[in-house]
Every structure is written in structure tokens, then in C-alpha cells.
Amino acid sequence: MSVELTLQAPVAHITLNRPEKSNAFDNTVIESLIDAFDRAGADDQTRVIVLDAAGKHFSAGADLNWMRAMGQLDHEENQRDALRLAALMARIDQAGKPVIARVQGAAFGGALGLICAADMAVAADNARFCLSEVKLGILPAVIAPYVVRALGPRQARRYFMTAEVIAAPRARELGIVHEVVAEDQLDATVEALVDALLKGAPEAQLEARDLVRRSDEQPLDENLIGYTAELIARLRTGDEGQEGLAAFLEKRAPAWSAS
Ligand code: ACO
């Protein structure tokens, strides 16, 4: 299987498992990833999804044999195919659980979309990133909304156009990943993020993700202000809010917390 889903409550691992092709993804891999995110997102026992990869590299991006074969299909078929990658990006971005990307080795082309669509990403110090598409005569199209959101438009213009290889420390500066650690510290770093996530309330975390998106995308007007007031009014009177506030005041762990 080119994608493995391992449900080990409270964590689901979705693992790119095509190391002989540097975890390059074709339409089969994309469909398997969509299915894995749907299943992990819907699993009641899962609290966090870790997107990781077997072998030396996280992913070499789109499978170039598959991309070349697209030349045999008409425009409509090409568009339909590209929309499946877009569907995958949206699945990761709006997954039913928080998503952590765990990155080692190369993350090229479309792989950057997978990483930037995740809520957070940690990389080994050997990781290197590249929006290599223009070197191949194409461009990072479907992943652009997620990559530009992470890098900001000015940095994105440079790296979309130059296809320079970005070393891990620079990727952290640019906002592609949140942490860079020695490869043997990757699992411990992911675990620390998982532990932090498990202490938070699941519904509040998904609302928080949505709040960040709205705050970033919407004008700061009465609509957004009204939305933020409605949100806290709803959450502090809801089950999770009441449980979390009571737990703090009663000096006990809230019901959702694993510890
Ligand atoms: N598609 C299909 N096969 C690939 C891809 C790819 N994107 N990338 C690597 N492979 C294959 C290689 O052809 C090779 O297969 P082979 O052993 O059958 O010849 C195998 O994976 C291993 O690749 P190597 O290049 O030998 O591994 P190395 O560790 O030296 O380099 C690296 C890895 C940096 C990822 C390199 O393979 C590379 O630059 N690949 C292209 C990456 C790229 O530009 N991706 C963007 C695609 S466009 C897009 O995503 C929209």
C-alpha cells in the first residue's frame, strides 16, 4: 500500500509509503490519502493526525511519469484530475482532527502543499524544500493557496519563480515548518505537540483553526467582530467550555484530557 493509515488512539498516523519512488504521488496515492484523512477525521478515538513518510524523503511531490502522461488527456480530464489534488489539500486543511506533518529529507513540489495545509509541521535538520515546478515547465498551482498562506506573498514570489532549494533552518524562518530538530528528535518533537494538543478541548481546537482562517481572510469589520463575540459566547456556555472552566477551578483534569 502506497499510503498506510494506522489508528493508534489517540493518534492516527497517515504514512506515505512509496519510498522506492521517494514517496512521489500519483492519482492512486492522492485517492488513498483522501480516504485516509476521511477515515482518521471521522474516527471517534482519534484526537490527532500525524502525516509522515517512510524512507529517506518525505515526498518528491507529484509523480513525474503521471504528470507527463497527463499530456495524453484532454483539458477537461486534466482539470478533473487536478481537482482531486485540490480536494486532498482541502481535506488536510479542514481535517476533522489537528494535523501535524513530520518531515525528513526532500519535500519537493506538491509535497510543500501537504506540509503547508497541515496545522503544524516539524522537520529534521536534513530536510530540504523546493518549489521545483518552474524547472519542469509547470508551476505550483493547486498548492498555491496553502503555500502562499504559509510563506506570505513576497517570499512566495521568490521561491515560486527561482525554485531554489530551501534548507530546513530557512524553511522555519519562512514559516513552512514550525520546528527543526535533529532527525533522532523528530518523534519526540511530534509527541510533545501531540501531548499539548491532547490537553486542549477537541471542538475548541477546530473552532480555533476556523477562527484563525476567518481572522486572516476577512476584513476587520462588524461581521468579524460580531462573529468573534458570538463564538466566545457560544463556547464558554457550551459543554466543553463549562467542563474546562469547572476543571480548572476544581483543580482536576478536564474530561477530554488524557493526562
Ligand atoms: N516522480 C516520479 N519518480 C520520482 C520523483 C517524482 N517526482 N522523484 C524521484 N523519483 C524517483 C526517481 O526517478 C528514482 O527512481 P528510480 O530508482 O526508478 O530511477 C527514485 O525516485 C529515487 O530518486 P533519486 O533521484 O535517485 O533519489 P535522490 O535521493 O538522489 O533524490 C529527490 C531525491 C531530491 C527527491 C530527487 O529525486 C528529485 O529531485 N526528484 C524530483 C522532485 C521534483 O521536482 N518534484 C516536483 C514534481 S512537480 C509537482 O509536484 C507538481
From TrEMBL:
Record InterPro entries: ClpP/crotonase-like_dom_sf, Enoyl-CoA_hydra/iso, Enoyl-CoA_hydra_C, Enoyl-CoA_Hydratase/Isomerase
GO molecular function, one term: isomerase activity
A Pfam family recorded for this sequence: ECH_1
Membrane-crossing segments per the record: none
BP term (GO), one: isoprenoid catabolic process
Top-level taxon of origin: Bacteria
Keywords: Isomerase
Family label: Belongs to the enoyl-CoA hydratase/isomerase family.
Protein name: Enoyl-CoA hydratase/isomerase, putative
